[in-house]
Amino acid sequence: MMDFIKCLWRKRSPEAYISFLRKKGVTVGRNVCFYGNLRFIDIDVTRPSLVKIGDNVHIVSPFSIVTHGWESAVFREKYHELVGSAGKVTIGDNVYIGADVMLLKGAEIGDNVIIGAKSLVTGEIPSDCVAAGVPARKIADLDDFFEKRKKESLHEAKEYARSIYEVFKRKPVEEDFFEFFPLFLKRDTEAIEEFNRKLKLKMKREGRKVMSVQSQLGPGFKYFLKTKPYYKSFEEFLADAGVPSEEKKE
Fold this sequence. Notes:
Elements: H1 2-10, H2 14-24, E1 27-28, E2 33-35, E3 41-43, E4 51-53, E5 57-60, E6 63-65, H3 72-78, E7 89-91, E8 95-97, E9 101-103, E10 108-109, E11 113-115, E12 120-121, E13 124-125, E14 129-133, E15 136-141, H4 142-168, H5 189-205, H6 213-217, H7 221-224, H8 234-241
Parallel strand pairs: 1-4, 2-5, 3-6, 4-7, 5-8, 6-9, 7-10, 8-11, 9-12, 10-13, 11-14
Antiparallel strand pairs: 14-15
Protein backbone atom coordinates (compact mmCIF):
# COMPACT_ATOMS: atom_id res chain seq x y z
CA MET A 1 0.00 0.00 0.00
CA MET A 2 2.83 2.37 0.90
CA ASP A 3 4.56 1.70 -2.45
CA PHE A 4 1.32 2.54 -4.26
CA ILE A 5 1.01 5.82 -2.37
CA LYS A 6 4.64 6.68 -3.15
CA CYS A 7 4.01 5.97 -6.83
CA LEU A 8 0.99 8.28 -6.85
CA TRP A 9 2.96 11.00 -5.09
CA ARG A 10 5.93 10.93 -7.47
CA LYS A 11 3.50 11.04 -10.40
CA ARG A 12 1.29 13.79 -9.01
CA SER A 13 2.43 16.06 -11.85
CA PRO A 14 4.75 15.84 -14.87
CA GLU A 15 7.20 18.14 -13.10
CA ALA A 16 7.25 15.94 -9.99
CA TYR A 17 7.84 12.80 -12.05
CA ILE A 18 10.67 14.38 -14.03
CA SER A 19 12.26 15.52 -10.76
CA PHE A 20 11.99 11.96 -9.41
CA LEU A 21 13.62 10.52 -12.54
CA ARG A 22 16.51 12.97 -12.39
CA LYS A 23 17.12 12.27 -8.70
CA LYS A 24 17.26 8.56 -9.52
CA GLY A 25 19.94 9.22 -12.15
CA VAL A 26 17.96 9.24 -15.39
CA THR A 27 19.18 11.89 -17.84
CA VAL A 28 16.18 14.06 -18.74
CA GLY A 29 16.56 17.07 -21.03
CA ARG A 30 14.71 20.37 -21.24
CA ASN A 31 11.04 20.72 -22.14
CA VAL A 32 10.12 17.07 -21.72
CA CYS A 33 6.33 16.74 -21.70
CA PHE A 34 4.08 13.86 -20.66
CA TYR A 35 0.47 13.74 -21.85
CA GLY A 36 -2.37 11.69 -20.40
CA ASN A 37 -2.48 9.67 -17.19
CA LEU A 38 0.95 9.59 -15.55
CA ARG A 39 0.04 6.37 -13.74
CA PHE A 40 0.46 4.58 -17.05
CA ILE A 41 3.91 5.95 -17.79
CA ASP A 42 6.56 3.55 -16.52
CA ILE A 43 10.23 4.37 -16.96
CA ASP A 44 12.58 1.69 -15.63
CA VAL A 45 14.73 3.14 -12.85
CA THR A 46 16.38 -0.12 -11.78
CA ARG A 47 19.34 0.87 -14.00
CA PRO A 48 18.82 4.65 -14.31
CA SER A 49 22.24 5.41 -15.77
CA LEU A 50 21.19 3.57 -18.94
CA VAL A 51 18.27 5.90 -19.74
CA LYS A 52 18.70 9.18 -21.59
CA ILE A 53 15.84 11.42 -22.73
CA GLY A 54 16.76 14.45 -24.84
CA ASP A 55 15.34 17.96 -25.17
CA ASN A 56 11.82 18.75 -26.45
CA VAL A 57 10.53 15.21 -26.10
CA HIS A 58 6.75 14.70 -26.04
CA ILE A 59 5.42 11.38 -24.70
CA VAL A 60 1.80 10.20 -24.66
CA SER A 61 0.51 7.76 -22.02
CA PRO A 62 0.56 4.77 -21.82
CA PHE A 63 4.32 4.46 -22.31
CA SER A 64 7.15 2.37 -20.92
CA ILE A 65 10.92 2.02 -21.02
CA VAL A 66 12.57 -1.26 -20.05
CA THR A 67 16.36 -1.46 -19.68
CA HIS A 68 16.57 -5.19 -19.02
CA GLY A 69 15.01 -8.57 -19.70
CA TRP A 70 14.19 -11.48 -17.41
CA GLU A 71 15.00 -14.41 -19.66
CA SER A 72 16.76 -15.95 -16.68
CA ALA A 73 13.36 -16.90 -15.30
CA VAL A 74 13.51 -19.68 -17.90
CA PHE A 75 17.29 -20.16 -17.88
CA ARG A 76 17.35 -20.87 -14.13
CA GLU A 77 14.93 -23.76 -14.48
CA LYS A 78 16.43 -25.22 -17.66
CA TYR A 79 20.17 -24.50 -17.29
CA HIS A 80 20.43 -23.59 -13.57
CA GLU A 81 22.25 -20.35 -14.40
CA LEU A 82 21.59 -16.64 -14.00
CA VAL A 83 22.36 -14.59 -17.12
CA GLY A 84 22.38 -10.82 -16.56
CA SER A 85 20.54 -8.45 -18.89
CA ALA A 86 20.88 -4.69 -19.37
CA GLY A 87 20.99 -2.20 -22.22
CA LYS A 88 20.81 1.51 -22.94
CA VAL A 89 17.63 3.29 -24.02
CA THR A 90 18.19 6.65 -25.69
CA ILE A 91 15.67 9.20 -26.97
CA GLY A 92 17.13 12.08 -28.99
CA ASP A 93 16.03 15.70 -29.25
CA ASN A 94 12.70 16.87 -30.69
CA VAL A 95 10.86 13.56 -30.55
CA TYR A 96 7.13 12.82 -30.38
CA ILE A 97 6.05 9.39 -29.10
CA GLY A 98 2.43 8.35 -29.61
CA ALA A 99 0.24 6.40 -27.22
CA ASP A 100 0.97 2.84 -26.08
CA VAL A 101 4.64 2.69 -27.11
CA MET A 102 7.27 0.50 -25.44
CA LEU A 103 11.04 0.98 -25.67
CA LEU A 104 13.12 -2.11 -24.91
CA LYS A 105 16.82 -2.27 -24.05
CA GLY A 106 18.90 -1.28 -27.04
CA ALA A 107 16.33 1.23 -28.31
CA GLU A 108 17.99 4.31 -29.75
CA ILE A 109 15.80 7.02 -31.25
CA GLY A 110 17.50 9.82 -33.20
CA ASP A 111 16.61 13.51 -33.39
CA ASN A 112 13.48 14.93 -35.05
CA VAL A 113 11.54 11.68 -34.95
CA ILE A 114 7.86 10.76 -34.71
CA ILE A 115 7.05 7.32 -33.27
CA GLY A 116 3.59 6.01 -34.17
CA ALA A 117 1.14 4.72 -31.58
CA LYS A 118 1.38 1.10 -30.38
CA SER A 119 4.97 0.72 -31.60
CA LEU A 120 7.63 -1.51 -30.05
CA VAL A 121 11.10 0.03 -30.38
CA THR A 122 13.87 -2.54 -30.08
CA GLY A 123 16.77 -1.00 -32.00
CA GLU A 124 18.01 2.10 -33.79
CA ILE A 125 15.60 4.59 -35.34
CA PRO A 126 17.44 7.15 -37.52
CA SER A 127 17.02 10.90 -37.21
CA ASP A 128 14.54 12.91 -39.30
CA CYS A 129 11.97 10.20 -39.87
CA VAL A 130 8.61 8.74 -38.92
CA ALA A 131 8.72 5.21 -37.49
CA ALA A 132 6.05 2.75 -36.44
CA GLY A 133 5.27 -0.94 -36.07
CA VAL A 134 6.23 -4.04 -34.12
CA PRO A 135 9.15 -3.87 -34.19
CA ALA A 136 9.26 -0.18 -35.12
CA ARG A 137 10.94 0.74 -38.38
CA LYS A 138 11.25 3.85 -40.52
CA ILE A 139 8.14 4.35 -42.67
CA ALA A 140 8.72 7.88 -44.00
CA ASP A 141 11.22 10.71 -44.19
CA LEU A 142 10.22 13.59 -41.93
CA ASP A 143 10.40 16.10 -44.82
CA ASP A 144 7.95 14.08 -46.91
CA PHE A 145 5.62 13.55 -43.95
CA PHE A 146 5.69 17.28 -43.17
CA GLU A 147 4.58 18.19 -46.71
CA LYS A 148 1.90 15.50 -46.65
CA ARG A 149 0.52 16.73 -43.33
CA LYS A 150 0.36 20.34 -44.52
CA LYS A 151 -1.90 19.29 -47.39
CA GLU A 152 -4.04 17.08 -45.16
CA SER A 153 -4.30 19.80 -42.52
CA LEU A 154 -6.07 22.15 -44.93
CA HIS A 155 -8.75 19.56 -45.65
CA GLU A 156 -9.06 18.71 -41.95
CA ALA A 157 -9.57 22.37 -41.00
CA LYS A 158 -12.40 22.72 -43.50
CA GLU A 159 -13.99 19.46 -42.38
CA TYR A 160 -13.83 20.65 -38.76
CA ALA A 161 -15.47 23.96 -39.70
CA ARG A 162 -18.34 22.14 -41.40
CA SER A 163 -18.78 19.83 -38.41
CA ILE A 164 -19.16 22.79 -36.03
CA TYR A 165 -21.86 24.25 -38.27
CA GLU A 166 -23.72 20.94 -38.63
CA VAL A 167 -23.46 19.65 -35.05
CA PHE A 168 -23.69 22.84 -32.98
CA LYS A 169 -25.97 24.73 -35.40
CA ARG A 170 -23.75 27.79 -35.29
CA LYS A 171 -21.23 29.59 -37.40
CA PRO A 172 -17.63 28.71 -36.42
CA VAL A 173 -15.53 31.43 -34.79
CA GLU A 174 -11.79 32.03 -35.05
CA GLU A 175 -10.98 30.72 -31.59
CA ASP A 176 -12.41 27.31 -32.51
CA PHE A 177 -9.27 26.82 -34.59
CA PHE A 178 -6.48 26.91 -32.02
CA GLU A 179 -4.31 24.67 -34.24
CA PHE A 180 -5.43 25.89 -37.66
CA PHE A 181 -5.07 29.65 -37.15
CA PRO A 182 -1.97 29.90 -39.43
CA LEU A 183 -4.38 29.41 -42.35
CA PHE A 184 -6.17 32.72 -41.81
CA LEU A 185 -4.68 34.82 -38.98
CA LYS A 186 -2.99 38.08 -40.00
CA ARG A 187 0.65 38.33 -39.00
CA ASP A 188 0.38 41.57 -37.05
CA THR A 189 0.46 42.32 -33.33
CA GLU A 190 -3.10 43.60 -33.08
CA ALA A 191 -4.65 40.58 -34.81
CA ILE A 192 -2.57 38.13 -32.77
CA GLU A 193 -3.39 39.82 -29.45
CA GLU A 194 -7.11 39.84 -30.26
CA PHE A 195 -7.02 36.16 -31.24
CA ASN A 196 -5.16 35.34 -28.00
CA ARG A 197 -7.75 37.24 -25.97
CA LYS A 198 -10.65 35.30 -27.51
CA LEU A 199 -8.79 32.01 -27.25
CA LYS A 200 -8.04 32.61 -23.56
CA LEU A 201 -11.72 33.22 -22.82
CA LYS A 202 -12.70 30.04 -24.69
CA MET A 203 -10.14 27.88 -22.87
CA LYS A 204 -11.18 29.22 -19.46
CA ARG A 205 -14.85 28.67 -20.26
CA GLU A 206 -14.13 25.06 -21.14
CA GLY A 207 -11.83 24.49 -18.16
CA ARG A 208 -8.84 23.81 -20.39
CA LYS A 209 -5.22 24.89 -20.27
CA VAL A 210 -4.90 28.40 -21.65
CA MET A 211 -3.16 28.54 -25.03
CA SER A 212 -1.87 31.34 -27.23
CA VAL A 213 -0.42 31.77 -30.69
CA GLN A 214 3.02 31.99 -29.10
CA SER A 215 2.63 28.86 -26.96
CA GLN A 216 1.28 26.84 -29.87
CA LEU A 217 4.10 27.83 -32.22
CA GLY A 218 6.92 27.72 -29.68
CA PRO A 219 10.27 28.56 -31.30
CA GLY A 220 8.49 28.80 -34.65
CA PHE A 221 6.69 32.03 -33.68
CA LYS A 222 9.35 34.37 -35.08
CA TYR A 223 9.24 32.51 -38.40
CA PHE A 224 5.44 32.56 -38.39
CA LEU A 225 5.54 36.38 -38.37
CA LYS A 226 7.44 36.34 -41.67
CA THR A 227 4.88 34.18 -43.48
CA LYS A 228 1.52 34.95 -45.07
CA PRO A 229 -1.79 33.22 -44.31
CA TYR A 230 -3.26 30.86 -46.90
CA TYR A 231 -6.53 32.81 -46.80
CA LYS A 232 -6.96 36.59 -46.84
CA SER A 233 -9.47 36.39 -43.99
CA PHE A 234 -11.35 34.02 -41.70
CA GLU A 235 -14.50 34.61 -43.74
CA GLU A 236 -12.71 33.49 -46.90
CA PHE A 237 -11.66 30.32 -45.09
CA LEU A 238 -15.25 29.59 -44.03
CA ALA A 239 -16.51 30.22 -47.55
CA ASP A 240 -13.95 27.79 -48.98
CA ALA A 241 -15.00 25.24 -46.35
CA GLY A 242 -18.58 25.52 -47.57
CA VAL A 243 -19.94 27.04 -44.36
CA PRO A 244 -22.92 29.37 -44.97
CA SER A 245 -22.59 32.94 -43.72
CA GLU A 246 -25.71 32.68 -41.55
CA GLU A 247 -26.46 30.53 -38.50
CA LYS A 248 -27.91 27.08 -39.19
CA LYS A 249 -31.64 26.95 -38.50
CA GLU A 250 -33.26 24.01 -36.73
